[in-house]
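Re: [ENG-882] Designed sequences occasionally contain unexpected residues at chain ends

Forwarding the minimal case from QA. C-alpha coordinates:
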Protein backbone atom coordinates (compact mmCIF):
# COMPACT_ATOMS: atom_id res chain seq x y z
CA UNK A 1 0.00 0.00 0.00
CA UNK A 2 1.40 3.37 -1.02
CA UNK A 3 -0.10 6.56 0.40
CA UNK A 4 0.58 9.91 -1.25
CA UNK A 5 0.78 12.90 1.03
CA UNK A 6 -0.46 16.36 0.21
CA UNK A 7 -3.93 15.47 -1.08
CA UNK A 8 -5.81 17.88 1.17
CA UNK A 9 -6.34 21.60 0.65
CA UNK A 10 -2.77 23.02 0.35
CA UNK A 11 -3.39 26.19 2.35
CA UNK A 12 -5.21 24.55 5.23
CA UNK A 13 -2.85 21.56 5.37
CA UNK A 14 0.29 23.70 5.46
CA UNK A 15 -1.18 26.00 8.08
CA UNK A 16 -2.00 23.03 10.31
CA UNK A 17 1.42 21.44 9.76
CA UNK A 18 3.20 24.65 10.76
CA UNK A 19 0.85 25.64 13.59
CA UNK A 20 1.99 26.19 17.15
CA UNK A 21 1.50 22.75 18.69
CA UNK A 22 -0.84 22.84 21.64
CA UNK A 23 -0.47 19.98 24.14
CA UNK A 24 -2.92 17.13 23.73
CA UNK A 25 -5.31 17.08 26.67
CA UNK A 26 -6.02 13.60 27.99
CA UNK A 27 -8.04 12.67 31.04
CA UNK A 28 -8.53 9.55 33.07
CA UNK A 29 -11.91 8.39 34.36
CA UNK A 30 -14.48 11.16 34.35
CA UNK A 31 -15.22 13.86 31.80
CA UNK A 32 -13.93 13.24 28.30
CA UNK A 33 -10.84 15.06 27.07
CA UNK A 34 -11.35 18.32 25.22
CA UNK A 35 -10.72 17.65 21.54
CA UNK A 36 -7.82 19.38 19.81
CA UNK A 37 -5.86 18.89 16.60
CA UNK A 38 -3.02 17.29 18.54
CA UNK A 39 -5.30 14.88 20.38
CA UNK A 40 -6.92 13.76 17.13
CA UNK A 41 -3.52 13.31 15.46
CA UNK A 42 -1.94 11.44 18.38
CA UNK A 43 -4.93 9.12 18.60
CA UNK A 44 -4.71 8.44 14.87
CA UNK A 45 -1.02 7.53 15.34
CA UNK A 46 -2.06 5.06 18.05
CA UNK A 47 -4.48 3.43 15.60
CA UNK A 48 -1.80 3.15 12.90
CA UNK A 49 0.83 1.86 15.36
CA UNK A 50 -1.39 -0.89 16.75
CA UNK A 51 -3.58 -1.81 13.79
CA UNK A 52 -1.80 -0.52 10.70
CA UNK A 53 -2.74 2.02 8.07
CA UNK A 54 -5.47 -0.23 6.68
CA UNK A 55 -7.40 0.25 9.92
CA UNK A 56 -7.08 4.04 9.94
CA UNK A 57 -10.30 5.97 9.45
CA UNK A 58 -11.96 8.98 10.98
CA UNK A 59 -14.47 6.59 12.52
CA UNK A 60 -11.73 4.45 14.14
CA UNK A 61 -10.09 7.55 15.62
CA UNK A 62 -13.45 8.83 16.86
CA UNK A 63 -14.22 5.53 18.55
CA UNK A 64 -10.95 5.66 20.49
CA UNK A 65 -11.85 9.14 21.66
CA UNK A 66 -15.42 8.24 22.47
CA UNK A 67 -16.65 10.63 19.79
CA UNK A 68 -18.31 10.43 16.42
CA UNK A 69 -16.31 10.72 13.21
CA UNK A 70 -18.23 13.89 12.35
CA UNK A 71 -17.02 15.60 15.53
CA UNK A 72 -13.41 15.32 14.29
CA UNK A 73 -13.92 17.23 11.08
CA UNK A 74 -13.91 20.54 12.97
CA UNK A 75 -10.25 19.88 13.73
CA UNK A 76 -9.05 17.87 10.73
CA UNK A 77 -10.96 18.25 7.47
CA UNK A 78 -10.25 14.84 5.93
CA UNK A 79 -8.36 11.58 6.26
CA UNK A 80 -5.82 12.82 3.69
CA UNK A 81 -5.11 15.87 5.81
CA UNK A 82 -4.90 13.68 8.91
CA UNK A 83 -2.24 11.47 7.33
CA UNK A 84 -0.04 14.51 6.60
CA UNK A 85 -0.33 15.65 10.21
CA UNK A 86 0.30 12.15 11.59
CA UNK A 87 3.45 11.70 9.53
CA UNK A 88 5.06 14.97 10.57
CA UNK A 89 3.89 14.70 14.18
CA UNK A 90 5.42 11.23 14.50
CA UNK A 91 8.79 12.55 13.34
CA UNK A 92 8.76 15.03 16.24
CA UNK A 93 9.54 12.03 18.44
CA UNK A 94 12.69 11.33 16.41
CA UNK A 95 13.75 14.96 16.52
CA UNK A 96 13.33 15.06 20.31
CA UNK A 97 15.50 11.95 20.70
CA UNK A 98 18.30 13.54 18.72
CA UNK A 99 18.08 16.95 20.39
CA UNK A 100 18.10 15.35 23.86
CA UNK A 101 21.48 13.83 23.04
CA UNK A 102 20.25 10.26 23.39
CA UNK A 103 22.41 7.76 21.51
CA UNK A 104 20.75 5.11 19.39
CA UNK A 105 21.52 1.54 20.39
CA UNK A 106 23.57 -0.62 18.05
CA UNK A 107 24.63 1.91 15.43
CA UNK A 108 25.37 4.85 17.65
CA UNK A 109 27.38 3.44 20.53
CA UNK A 110 28.97 6.13 22.70
CA UNK A 111 28.67 8.89 20.16
CA UNK A 112 31.37 11.53 19.98
CA UNK A 113 29.57 14.64 18.76
CA UNK A 114 32.84 15.95 17.29
CA UNK A 115 33.09 12.97 14.92
CA UNK A 116 30.89 13.44 11.86
CA UNK A 117 30.75 9.72 11.09
CA UNK A 118 29.75 8.79 14.64
CA UNK A 119 27.02 11.43 14.51
CA UNK A 120 25.69 10.13 11.20
CA UNK A 121 25.68 6.57 12.58
CA UNK A 122 23.73 7.71 15.64
CA UNK A 123 21.27 9.67 13.48
CA UNK A 124 20.79 6.61 11.26
CA UNK A 125 20.29 4.32 14.25
CA UNK A 126 17.56 6.57 15.59
CA UNK A 127 15.92 6.56 12.16
CA UNK A 128 16.01 2.74 11.95
CA UNK A 129 14.41 2.32 15.37
CA UNK A 130 11.81 4.99 14.59
CA UNK A 131 10.65 3.12 11.50
CA UNK A 132 10.37 -0.13 13.47
CA UNK A 133 8.20 1.64 16.07
CA UNK A 134 6.05 3.26 13.40
CA UNK A 135 6.13 0.96 10.33
CA UNK A 136 3.09 2.70 8.82
CA UNK A 137 5.30 5.71 8.03
CA UNK A 138 7.03 3.54 5.41
CA UNK A 139 3.76 3.52 3.45
CA UNK A 140 3.89 7.30 2.98
CA UNK A 141 5.51 7.86 -0.41
CA UNK A 142 8.64 10.01 -0.59
CA UNK A 143 7.63 11.11 -4.09
CA UNK A 144 5.55 13.89 -2.54
CA UNK A 145 6.93 14.82 0.87
CA UNK A 146 4.69 16.26 3.55
CA UNK A 147 6.85 19.42 3.89
CA UNK A 148 6.19 19.69 7.60
CA UNK A 149 8.48 21.27 10.22
CA UNK A 150 9.69 18.01 11.74
CA UNK A 151 10.55 16.58 8.34
CA UNK A 152 12.69 19.67 7.76
CA UNK A 153 14.23 19.47 11.25
CA UNK A 154 15.28 15.90 10.56
CA UNK A 155 17.02 17.02 7.37
CA UNK A 156 18.52 20.03 9.15
CA UNK A 157 20.13 17.81 11.81
CA UNK A 158 22.01 15.67 9.32
CA UNK A 159 22.79 18.59 7.02
CA UNK A 160 24.37 20.48 9.94
CA UNK A 161 26.65 17.54 10.74
CA UNK A 162 27.74 17.13 7.12
CA UNK A 163 28.11 20.86 6.48
CA UNK A 164 30.84 21.01 9.13
CA UNK A 165 32.89 18.56 7.08
CA UNK A 166 33.12 20.97 4.15
CA UNK A 167 31.02 18.84 1.81
CA UNK A 168 29.39 20.79 -1.05
CA UNK A 169 25.69 21.48 -0.68
CA UNK A 170 24.63 19.05 -3.42
CA UNK A 171 26.71 16.26 -1.87
CA UNK A 172 25.01 16.89 1.50
CA UNK A 173 21.58 16.64 -0.10
CA UNK A 174 22.53 13.45 -1.95
CA UNK A 175 23.95 11.88 1.22
CA UNK A 176 20.72 12.59 3.10
CA UNK A 177 18.63 11.07 0.32
CA UNK A 178 20.88 8.02 0.07
CA UNK A 179 20.77 7.26 3.80
CA UNK A 180 17.04 7.88 4.05
CA UNK A 181 16.23 5.54 1.16
CA UNK A 182 18.73 2.90 2.32
CA UNK A 183 17.09 2.90 5.75
CA UNK A 184 13.54 2.82 4.38
CA UNK A 185 14.33 -0.02 1.99
CA UNK A 186 16.08 -2.23 4.53
CA UNK A 187 13.86 -1.54 7.54
CA UNK A 188 10.74 -2.37 5.53
CA UNK A 189 11.90 -6.00 5.43
CA UNK A 190 12.64 -5.94 9.17
CA UNK A 191 9.21 -4.50 9.95
CA UNK A 192 7.48 -7.05 7.73
CA UNK A 193 9.42 -9.87 9.41
CA UNK A 194 8.08 -8.71 12.78
CA UNK A 195 4.52 -8.66 11.49
CA UNK A 196 4.65 -11.89 9.50
CA UNK A 197 3.77 -14.32 12.32
CA UNK A 198 0.81 -12.24 13.47
CA UNK A 199 -0.55 -11.98 9.92
CA UNK A 200 0.09 -15.56 8.75
CA UNK A 201 -0.18 -17.42 12.04
CA UNK A 202 3.07 -19.27 11.35
CA UNK A 203 6.35 -18.62 13.23
CA UNK A 204 9.27 -17.64 11.03
CA UNK A 205 11.46 -20.64 11.87
CA UNK A 206 8.64 -23.02 10.97
CA UNK A 207 8.05 -21.22 7.69
CA UNK A 208 11.71 -21.37 6.67
CA UNK A 209 12.17 -25.01 7.70
CA UNK A 210 9.00 -26.19 5.95
CA UNK A 211 10.14 -24.75 2.63
CA UNK A 212 13.92 -25.02 2.71
CA UNK A 213 13.60 -28.68 3.69
CA UNK A 214 11.88 -29.30 0.36
CA UNK A 215 14.81 -28.06 -1.71
CA UNK A 216 16.62 -31.41 -1.62
CA UNK A 217 13.50 -33.14 -2.92
CA UNK A 218 12.54 -30.69 -5.65
CA UNK A 219 16.11 -29.96 -6.74
CA UNK A 220 18.54 -32.78 -6.05
CA UNK A 221 21.14 -30.97 -8.21
CA UNK A 222 20.82 -27.67 -6.33
CA UNK A 223 24.51 -27.49 -5.40
CA UNK A 224 25.54 -28.03 -9.03
CA UNK A 225 23.13 -25.42 -10.34
CA UNK A 226 24.01 -22.84 -7.67
CA UNK A 227 27.62 -23.57 -6.65
CA UNK A 228 28.43 -20.11 -5.31
CA UNK A 229 25.31 -19.91 -3.15
CA UNK A 230 26.03 -23.42 -1.86
CA UNK A 231 29.57 -22.38 -0.93
CA UNK A 232 28.25 -19.26 0.81
CA UNK A 233 25.81 -21.40 2.78
CA UNK A 234 28.63 -23.68 3.91
CA UNK A 235 30.62 -20.63 5.00
CA UNK A 236 27.75 -19.36 7.17
CA UNK A 237 26.50 -16.50 5.00
CA UNK A 238 22.88 -17.27 5.82
CA UNK A 239 23.26 -18.46 9.42
CA UNK A 240 20.88 -17.09 12.03
CA UNK A 241 23.16 -15.82 14.80
CA UNK A 242 20.27 -15.06 17.16
CA UNK A 243 17.34 -17.48 16.91
CA UNK A 244 15.29 -15.21 19.21
CA UNK A 245 15.05 -12.64 16.40
CA UNK A 246 13.46 -13.17 12.99
CA UNK A 247 16.12 -14.17 10.47
CA UNK A 248 15.04 -11.58 7.91
CA UNK A 249 15.13 -8.82 10.53
CA UNK A 250 18.74 -9.75 11.33
CA UNK A 251 19.57 -9.93 7.64
CA UNK A 252 18.04 -6.52 6.97
CA UNK A 253 19.91 -4.96 9.89
CA UNK A 254 23.26 -6.40 8.79
CA UNK A 255 22.66 -5.30 5.20
CA UNK A 256 21.81 -1.80 6.41
CA UNK A 257 25.01 -1.60 8.46
CA UNK A 258 27.07 -2.88 5.53
CA UNK A 259 25.48 -0.47 3.06
CA UNK A 260 25.78 2.47 5.44
CA UNK A 261 29.46 1.78 6.12
CA UNK A 262 30.16 1.57 2.39
CA UNK A 263 28.23 4.78 1.76
CA UNK A 264 30.07 6.67 4.49
CA UNK A 265 33.41 5.41 3.16
CA UNK A 266 32.49 7.10 -0.12
CA UNK A 267 31.43 10.28 1.69
CA UNK A 268 34.79 10.34 3.49
CA UNK A 269 36.60 10.18 0.14
CA UNK A 270 34.60 13.17 -1.06
CA UNK A 271 35.39 15.07 2.15
CA UNK A 272 39.09 14.32 1.67
CA UNK A 273 38.91 15.41 -1.98
CA UNK A 274 37.15 18.63 -1.04
CA UNK A 275 39.71 19.36 1.69
CA UNK A 276 42.57 18.66 -0.73
CA UNK A 277 41.12 20.97 -3.37
CA UNK A 278 40.66 23.74 -0.81
CA UNK A 279 44.23 23.35 0.42
Amino acid sequence: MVVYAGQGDPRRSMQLLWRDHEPAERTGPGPRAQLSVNLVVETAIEVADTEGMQALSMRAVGERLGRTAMSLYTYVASKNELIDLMYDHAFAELVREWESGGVAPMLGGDTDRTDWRAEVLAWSGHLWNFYLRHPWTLEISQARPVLGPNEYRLFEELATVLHRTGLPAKAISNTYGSILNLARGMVRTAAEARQAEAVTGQPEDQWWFARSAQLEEVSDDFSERFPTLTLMTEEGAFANDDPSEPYLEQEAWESFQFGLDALLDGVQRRIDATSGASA
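QA comment: On inspection the terminal residues look reasonable. Residues 173-278 form one domain. Proposing we downgrade this to a documentation issue.
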